[in-house]
Amino acid sequence: MSAHCTSVTTFLQSVKDDLTSIVMDKHGEGPSLGDCEMIFGDGADSRGTTTEDEKESEDGKEMEGEMRREVNTTEDASGQPKCNTVTDLPYSDCLPHAASLPRFPDERTPLIRPSSSFTGIYSSSWSTTVGPSPYTSDNKPKRRPFHHAVASSGSTSGARTMDGSTIDAHLFTRYRYYSRLRADVHPSEQALVIPDHVVPPELFLPYIPGHTPDADGKQASHITIIAIWNTMMGTSLMTMPWAFGQAGFAGGLIIMLGMAALSLYTAIRLLTLQKTIGLEGPSLELSRVCLQLLGGTLGRLTECVTVSFSVLTLVGAQVVYWVLMSNFLFNTGEVIYDAMNGEIHNDSSSMLLCPPNMTHDDLSIPEPSMFHRWWQQDLTVPFYLIIPFLFILNLRNAKIFTYFNSLGAISVLVMYLFVISKASVWGFNISVTDPTDIFYVPLFKSTFMCLTGTLSLAYFIHNCVVTIMQGNRHQENNVRDVTVAYVLVAATYIPIGVFFYSTFPLPKYCVVDNFLDNFPPHDVVLAVVRGFLFFQILTVYPLLGFFIRNQLFTYFMGPTYEYKLWRVIVLNTCLITLSVMVAVLYPNIGFIIRWIGAISGLAYIFVLPCVTYMVALYSKDQLQWYQLVFHCGIILLGIGNFVCQFLIK
Amino acid sequence: MMKKKVLLMGKSGSGKTSMRSIIFANYIARDTSRLGATIDVEHSHVRFLGNLVLNLWDCGGQEAFMENYFASQRDNIFRNVEVLIYVFDVESRELERDMHYYQSCLEAILQNSPEARVFCLIHKMDLVQDDQRDLIFREREEDLKRLSKPLECVCFRTSIWDETLYKAWSSIVYELIPNVKELEQNLKDFANIIDADEVLLFERATFLVISHYRMRPHRDVNRFEKVSNIIKQFKLSCSKLAAHFQSMEVRNSNFAAFIDIFTSNTYCMVIMSDASIPSAATLINIRNARKHFEKLERMNQGHLALSR
To answer: Subcellular localization, per the record (chain B) (predicted)?
Structure first.
């Protein structure tokens, strides 16, 4: 029974907090909840009849009797009711009557974490964690299950209409209440489960350990910048050195800086589109704004086009991820095998691989061991990868994946430092003037479109920049924050590309489209990095699958499509088949990345922002000739980028 | 005194059970697979506003059976109805059929309880894009008003995921109380006498706000729903222990809030910002006011049945 009572007390604590915060809103001061007390009336006088929900049971009467007794002592001689603190409730001394009192599910409400998983938090009822509360009145934790602090009174004056924070607080009380109503129901029953389109967008943010979201649900600028950086920083990082080399030294630098500036410009155009149109109100999703702007059939066409490009990008990303996962898993397997066989590699730091030369060497190996027959990067590992996904794709609770997402950022930092340290050791091994030098790099190369294509994907954030910036606390700083984020991203990509390529001590054609492959598997630092990246990609893959599924089904069946398992399975099977086939037959991620980059870049980076900006200005009769020329120029660049991809053999 | 009915009707799957469970704080029933031949009728004896009893009806399912049952039982069903609340699912693709059922209900009402009030809820509005909601609601409202003649229906658009559901039901309850203006005036006097910042009056079964008076403006316009949800959660917890919630006081250095049973049909919530006033004083005041309000209610008990 004490388990019951302490769960009740925990709940009462939260009730008290909620009521306090509602009332305190009106005074606008921070609540001093420490001295808050709750006092309960007795059931002694039956005032009026009660609802028929109650049963007049033996236990019920006994309970009331106990309560009556307790309550009589709450009034002192002075007539002032003695205040009971929360732990001294009348209930706490009651004894249970065998099995008649129902088991109480755990009272703790789920902690809200910023989460990039749609389904993790809301899909199952809080009450599925059935069991007694582990807390007694002695070790009850001081934390409150959910507490949304009242915003400071200084920031507002007078009557304030509903803003993001109060909307979410209401949504959360509703969610809690409805979850309680679902207490007896099997989790598969869909009644009163919060649907995805109701979940506030602030929850779709990267999980940063140790950082808790503030009261108003928005985050400070530096967190937004980190979120953007984290989202943009992807697998293109490993392609950077190779891609830079494809454009020549000067060409590479020019293109890298130019693309960064151009992507930034168009991202800002998209971000401020709503203001350009003159649409007041809360910031809407990009597709909604476009729909408003273009309207009617043209709007629907745009929607179709945006969805297809978006899905195409995601599918391409999935395929690339499968290839990379096979790569990382293969190398990790090699490391473990070597370690188990006691092969110790010394001076691994100075040994470098030249994969374009290696296919010949491989053939000269006399007898590949049993392990190596079954563990080949291109032929077998992609299939082995299917096994973990059979489990992962069935996992309902995807919240655990959000933690692994942070590993990606750590890996990037480690790679960055690794490259800088290697580069400083190797020194500059480059010559731009002497064509006979083995380290010769021409200033401009005709294969520069590899770089442009890769960068289109590397600087790609345009389809979610509005969503991410919605969470920014000071909206007026949006443009500044996006600029800073882009500068940071460029400052990550450019050094890695330029320094690695310039200082690489082997002939430049050895640099491959995944620079980790230039190092042997047993390099310790990189082995760890590969491990981290493997786990990170492992967790992002199903997330991408979810996005694809969501976008496709929403487009074809509306936002209320029914979740039918067989459809999901069919889609997943197709996606995995595609990924495995590409990984086995043509695992050339440089190729895939530049194509995906060119296609999605064409749509989102070049065409869409320019077209919408020009239409917006035109509808306000503010379109100047030079703006027209400039933006049409950008569109032509995008088309040129796409077309040139065909020209590379 | 005779119990009058509140009929909650609508097509199967339109959200009536969820709505009822939210408003009346009942646990969601396990999904009983609806075998074809039974009509889903729930006679729940939740007392509501004194002498009203809520009946929940599912219209839909076996059409032929429905028509038969409707024809043979309709007098029974539709006699003594105080309020008809009809729920439409905004996503429904069978508008013709929905309207057909609705009109059959209206005919039955016209024959058996012509004094009944009709409310239409366009439900699940969260599934509509927010810039289209007004448009779609106005269209439906026009159609419904036209179809309902000579009866008059009041339309609301609702969704369980925002404040519109609570507001709609609050408005419905507000319309059903005959002397609500008088109640509000009395509340205002009560608040001024005891120097309270705000006084709320809740309906007892559903914690819908019947009337309120506040001395100072408050920023949060949807606080009633929040308080209501919180207290209903608490009532649910209490019911698990076979106890029932009677009253509550929440106090800190800045305010004191009292939630107490008031009359036989209502709860009241009093917020005092002067923390120096001892609780006992406020509780005595509430107790004395109770007698006055009960008298008010008894006077109008006979008139609690609606007169237009």
So the answer is: Cytoplasm; Endomembrane system; Lysosome
Return the residue of A nearest to B162 by Cα. Answer: A171
Name the residue in chain B with its Cα closest to that of A67: B243
* Bridge partners, residue B200, by sequence: B212, B269
In a mutational test of the A interface, the residue from B131, B232, B234 whose CB has the highest number of chain A CBs within 10 Å is B234
Are B243 and A64 a contacting pair at CB < 8 A? yes
Q: Give the CA angle between residues A392, A461, A318 to the nearest 5°.
A: 30
Residue type, A71: V
DSSP-derived pairing of the beta strands B256-261 and B266-272: antiparallel
Query: Nearest 5°: phi and psi at A57?
Result: -105, 170
Q: Please state, rounded to an integer, the average pLDDT across all residues of chain A.
A: 68
Count of Cβ atoms closer than 10 Å to residue A150 Cβ: 20
> ipTM of the predicted structure?
0.85
Gap from B5 CA to chain A (nearest CA, Å): 16
The residue among A259 and A356 whose pLDDT is bigger is A259
pLDDT tens digits for A102-142?
A: 333 333 333 333 333 333 333 333 333 334 555 666 666 65
- CA A81 vs. chain centroid, Å, equals 52
Q: Give the mean model confidence (pLDDT) for residues A90-105.
A: 32
Q: Is A195 helix (H, G, I), strand (E, B) or coil?
A: coil
B46 CB neighbours in chain A (<8 A) are 51-52
Instruction: State the virtual CA torsion across A211, A215, A216, A222 in degrees, nearest 10.
Output: -30
| Cβ–Cβ gap B223/A25 under 8 Å | yes
Beta-bridge partners for B123: B89
Q: For B96-125, give the DSSP string.
A: HHHHHHHHHHHHHHHHH-TT-EEEEEEE-G
DSSP A105: P
Determine, for residues B219 and A160 on separate chains, whether the beta-carbon distance falls below 8 Å.
yes
Secondary structure (3-state) at B4: strand
- List CB contacts (< 8 A) between A189 and chain B: 28, 30-31
- A-chain residues near B199 (CB < 8 A): none
Cα separation of B94 and A180, whole Å?
33
Query: Radius of gyration (Cα) for chain B, nearest Å?
Result: 21
Which residues of chain A lie closer than 8 angstroms to B30, CB-CB? 184-186, 189
The dihedral through the CA atoms of A325, A331, A335, A336 has a sign that is positive
Per-residue burial over A584-612, b if 16 or more Cβ lie within 10 Å, else e, is beebebbbbbbbbbbbbbbbbbbbbbbbb
Q: Where are the alpha helices (H) located in B113-242, listed in sequence order?
A: 133-148, 164-176, 180-194, 223-240
Two structure tokens written together for B103:
């009109």
Nearest by CB to residue B229, choosing from A43, A91, A174, is A174
Task: Give chain B positions within 8 Å (CB) of A80.
Answer: 278-280
Residue B49 above 50 pLDDT? yes
- Test mutation, B46, B204, B255, B265, chain A, max A CBs within 10 A: B255
Q: Measured between alpha carbons, how far is B168 from A140 in angstroms, rounded to an integer?
A: 40
Helix (H, G, I), strand (E, B) or coil at B144: helix
Instruction: Please identify which residue in the block is written with the tokens 């001295």.
Output: A35
B203 vs A contacts (CB less than 8 Å): none
**Rounded distance, CA B15 to CA B259, Å?**
31
pLDDT of residue A270: 86
